[in-house]
Amino acid sequence: MIRVLVADDQAAVRAGLVLILRSAPDMEVVGEAADGRRAVALARELLPDVVLMDVRMPELDGIAATRELAGTGVDVLVLTTFDVDEYVFGALRAGAAGFLLKDIDADRLLDAVRTVASGEGVLAPAVTRRLISAFATRPRTSATLPPPGLAELTPREREVFRCLGEGMSNGQIAARLSMAETTTKTHVSRILGKLGLRSRVQAAILAQELAEEGRADVPPHDEAGEPL
């Protein structure tokens, strides 16, 4: 049984999410929170498998709440909309397992929760590409410091890493690199481990930052996916 905590300050939205989750035979809603502070307290007390976390909440916003839950073993799915990209950048660094749009349909919501509960990240490619692009074009005061583990990536892992930087799903990566999707999943897991990252989102952002800075080890790609 997947244990889920729902955090959203809008009662109607929260009720809708709870209704959808309770319709799934393999899920249990263990708690609800109307603000970020309560969400953190309940998550630490109940230790759910997944927290659905709204971005804009009183007391403590969803980004800060996600950051406070880092290292607790609780995975966070951030609920967002396209018009709040600026509020999501912090969650990328905080280790959010993924992002969902609030207008997501019921089946995709349930699939996303199951995916995160199984230890994987959820990246809707259209959303992810926009977030990555917006993040990469923000002014930075200094160059990105690549993690030591970057040098440990194999040539194949570097190819997968570049694909992550384009916001590609496992299926899309598998198709581009002509490999099985299960093999792609294994490569992604190894990349996260070597780079000391908690989610695919963090890997995608790092790959994009390095590409934007013209690092030779992660060259940028054109729209067709070919090295520039």
Automatic annotation (TrEMBL):
SUPFAM superfamilies: C-terminal effector domain of the bipartite response regulators (SSF46894), CheY-like (SSF52172). The keyword DNA-binding applies. The modification 4-aspartylphosphate is found at residue 54. It comes from the Bacteria. Signal peptide: none annotated. GO terms for molecular function: DNA binding. This is LuxR family two component transcriptional regulator.
